[in-house]
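Purpose: get a first structural picture of the assembly so the mutagenesis plan has something to point at.
Setup: two entries, given in the order below. No constraints added.
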Amino acid sequence: MINRRQFVLASAASATALGIGLPVRAQEVPAGYPADYKALVEKAKAEGVVSIYTSTDDVQGRPIVEAFQKAYPGIRVDYNDLGTNGAYNRIISEAAAKQVGSDVVWTSAMDLQMVLVQKGLAEAYKSPETSHLPGWANFNDTLYGTTVEPVGILYNKAQLASMKLPKTRAELLAFMRDNKDALKGKLATFDPEKSGTGFLFFSNDAKTMPDTFELVKAFGATEGKTYGSSGAMREKIVSGEHWLAFNIIASYAIEWAAKNPALGYILTSDHTAAFSRVANISKGAPHPNAARVFLDFLLANSGQSALASVGAPSIRTDVTSGLNLTKLTEMANGNLKPIPVTTALLEATEPKNRADFFRRWKEALRG
Amino acid sequence: MSLSAQAPRYRASVILALFVMVAAPAALIIYQSFLSAPFFDETARLSLEAYEFILSDPEFYRALWTTTLYAVGMVAVAVPLGGLLAFLITRTDLKGRGWLEPLVLVPMFLSSIVLAFGYTVAVGPSGFVTIAFRNVFGVAPWSIYTLPGIILIGGLSHVPTVYLYVASAMRRLPSDLEEAARTAGASIWRVSLDVTLPMVLPALVFSAALNLLLGFETFGIPLVLGDPNGILVLTTYIYKVNTIFGAPTYQVMAAVTVFLILITLPLVFIQRRLLRHARRFAAVGGKGARTNLLKLGSTGQVVALSIIGLWLLVSVVLPVGGIVLRAFVENWGEGVKLSEQLTLANFQRVFELPSLSRGIINTILLAAVGGAFAVAFYLLVGLAGHRNHGKTGTLLDYSVLIPRALPGLIVGLAFFWLFLFVPFLVPLRTTLFSLLIAYIIVGLSYGLRIIQATLLQVAPELEESARTAGATTFRTWRDVVIPLVRPGLAGAWAMIMIVFLREYATGVYLMSAGTEVIGSLMVSLLTSGAMDQIAALSFISILLTAIGLTLAMRLGAKIHD
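Result (structure tokens, whole complex):
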């Protein structure tokens, strides 16, 4: 009777989602918030719902949603994982139809979300948590960085046991060049043509690191393969089909390596880029007060702890669960280079710049 | 005397309503392809930019060529195999037919993403079969990431589609012709080729044409298996173009879709020509013919069982085994002892997530209840087109195939817009009805063809005699046609249920919190690479289908008869 069990479990899960039978320790006004915050929370509760458009999948998003539900039991969270393009597409379409459905937009497509801000589809709101964020993570009190997620290497320990592991970008380049034949078809990386995140990583590299296309050229010479997601690369590394993947989301890699002894990760010590999941409130949000309460929670210590517990390291320095900005900077040997939330993100979205990048990318990939 | 002169008002209104449902999304897409920006963008103006872009892009031509090879190759694999399996299971006394049939259908239960994923885990470069083979023979001489590999897997996964059409046609054949041929000394294979084959030609033609269309529209298999080697088909090209521009470029997606429509329209034309004489194939006479099964003999049994066994191994055991294995382990591959890796964690995770558990419930609702709605709708349309050789009949044939020419992803996107911008549809947007309507359109050619094929089997003499006796067209349908095709309706429902269960592309743009469905959840999980959950969801999806089918059969609805 699997079916019945499924239903029981499913209903239990739904009940949990609805906050039925949960021991609630609701906080009326978080410490250090303005006195009138209570009124905002009351309005938010009257709205009763907050709708999130995100690219963070349900597995990763769950802890923050549950923590929010615990803190504000009167507000239901409609969590929509639409992917980066899907979220962007839905937001511009809904705005054009004057039927805004999102309260908070929260994706890893830093560039696309900056485009939304430029199009006037985001609402400015100064969160009481602003003082806890680094300056590069706050754009005009409108678009906020909520995580700091390094870009790094995932590898299969058994397959690389006899080789010297690259610890810096320079060593990675040498590693690929020196072992060109042994590594034939054994390397993987993010595909900037198929994934917005991949594009963000490589276009940011191309902007900040002079050796980027040399690295791609060396990778191309080993006949490496490119993939549209870190998860797909993990699958191929675990199975031994590939030995090493570079420029993948290393916050995931760190989690996976902790769970699976066959896997190892590397943050290159001379330069480790990091991206951020960014959040803003939608212009014309159907539940504007709930949107504010959720955004504040996303940036607050409790929300950040929930995120960090599932491998999305905190952008704050005072969060103790999981990883945070300080710990990551140490792990990257002081060379953590977060991509700032600024209008510079828009450069890569210019058609001419993109075409330019892809031309160089394709050329380099031929090895 | 032509029946098409009767009940013209009913025919015309149903067909026009359908035409609007189908044409609206298609028209929106065609319109979008001639714009410079999204149609709702103030800066949008008429322009040929999108066409200029794709016609100057070598990648597009390569994708077009690959897609053509894939579609033709898939038909070449699926149609003969599907026809052969249908013949063996429905027309002969093959041992174990009863339990073989559901097994033969298994690949239909799986969305192609899952199937491709299953093959990767089983026979991919580090699949468990590949590793075992390599350990024994030192080498595993195959690669599923090549075009031939993708074509073979695509073809095998479409065998059940062919099987369903052909088997339901074969079940209605009287056996006297075959028996006569056997008595005259023809071998069983001769009989199948010279007697059975011509009689089920319409079903074969339909399924070949349909599979050709499916081939052009294919997405999941090339997405999973083609990407590592950069093998692109048109749909994955659409997918890729999106990212190259950095934001959804609807006009380019739309222009590629227009090409797909242009490719498939000639197919429809050919199909119509072939079936102009559908009358010739009418095989259910006034008396319900009871068929006798052909005797295979002992050698025949062995040969037939070997063929089916091999097909089952490659098409069912490998991918399903891969999925089952992957659903219950967290790690696999070279040097990993699977026995040490067994876990239920993947499932636990699925049930902990409200969206995923909701997705399971929604999928059940859409497949079972929505599937019944769909069949009722298809029957209304099918009757409107039945023995309708007039202009509306032609319109119907083309209407039916338009959505097949549109990739599910694009149909979903177009409906998302329609539900957003058409005022009276707005309230439905965030309900399961929006998905159901899109699903009905996506499943239209599947469902309608199977119902039409069944309707065509009713000998016109029966209808004509009812009409002669003074019955109206409606009365004829109610008292003659529908009772004769009722068994076919249960089969259609089961089939539509399967189609809805495994649908994955249509809901991607349409679903929202509360209206999640398993298939589309898998697509979004694939984006973030949550393979553990995909494997668990696939497994649940297979289970659901198995439960649904068992239930359907218990209720007296056999798969087709």
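DSSP finds 14 helices and 14 strands in chain A.
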